[in-house]
Amino acid sequence: MEEIYLLITRHLAGQTSEEEEKHLREWTSSSSVNARTFEEVKQVWLASYQRDDTAAIHAFQRLDKKMHAQKQQKPGITPSGKLPISKPRRFAIIASLALTFIISALLYKVYYPSEPVVIKEFTVSGQKKEIWLADGTKVFLAPQSELFYPKDFTAEKRVVELQGEAYFEVSKDRHRPFIVRTATLDVQVLGTHFNVNSYKKNTSTSVSLMEGKVKVLMAGDDGDEYLLEPGQELSLNKLNHQVYQHEFDQESTTGWMTNTLLIKNEKLGQVAEKINQLYGVKLIFADQATADTRLYARFKNESLINVLETISATGNIAYRIERNKVYLTLKN
Hints:
This protein is an alpha+beta fold. The chain is 34% helix and 31% strand. The model is unreliable at 49-57, 70-83 and 106-114 (pLDDT under 50).
C-alpha cells in the first residue's frame, strides 16, 4: 500500500510516466475507498502549498486526529492470505506523507519564493469535476481529463493547460486574457463560454464556442490565428493539420456535462469513446462490420444497460459485459 501513496505524490508533483498515470487512474476508479484515499492525500498536498502555511498544518492535524480517533481493530486475513493494512495504519502513512509535504513546501518557498504553484486536477472514466479558478472562472472537467492551473494568476494573463476535454465559463477581465493551452493549439479569450476537446488519443482537437468571441492560435512555426463567433466550431486534424471551421450541435458537443449521449446516424465505433467516458467501460467489437453499424438515438441519464439494450434492438447487435468491458457482435 505504501507504493500507491508514493505514486499519488509523484502524480501530484507531475513526475509520473504515462504507464504510471494509467495505473493510478485504474486504481482510483476501481473503488470508492481508493477514490477517497486519493482525495485525502491530494487535499493535504494542496494545503501544504497554500500561502497561509497554517492551512497545511491544520490539514496535517486533521489527519493526525483522524488517525488517533480510529479504534484499534484486530486484523483479519484477506482472501489472498495477507494481513490487511488497518485504518489507523493507513492514516499513519498519510499523516507521515503530510508532514513530508509540509516541510518540502516550506523549504520550497524559502528558496524559490517567486515560482508559481501549479495545481493538477484529473478525472477518471465516468467521472466529471467542477473546478473554480482564482479569478472566478468555472471549469467543468470531462472524464479522463487533466487540467493544470496556478493557485493565483499573474497580473498580465490567465493561463491553464488542458489534456482531455473541458467546458469553460470564463470570468470577464478586459486587462487579462484567459488562455487555454493544448498540445496542438491555444484558445485566447477575455470572458466567454466554450468547450475544448483535446484528448491525446483522438485524431482531432476542437474548440466550440457558445457565447462571446475566442481567438484560436495554432501551435508550431506558422502560428495561424482564427476567430470564432457563437455557434461556430474549429477542428484541427492532427494527422494532416487540416483546419475546419463550421457550425456545431451544442447538445451533442456538451452532452457529457448532462450525461446526454446523442447519436445522429453515426457509426458505433465513432461513439465508442463517448460511451467509455460516460460509463467507464470499454467497447470491444467482434469485427469491423459491428463497429460500422450506424445508429440514431438519444440518451439522457440512462443506465448503461438501457443504452446497450437500445443499441442491441436498433442495431441488431448482441452484447456481453465482463467487468468494465463490453463485447459487441452482430446477431446471426
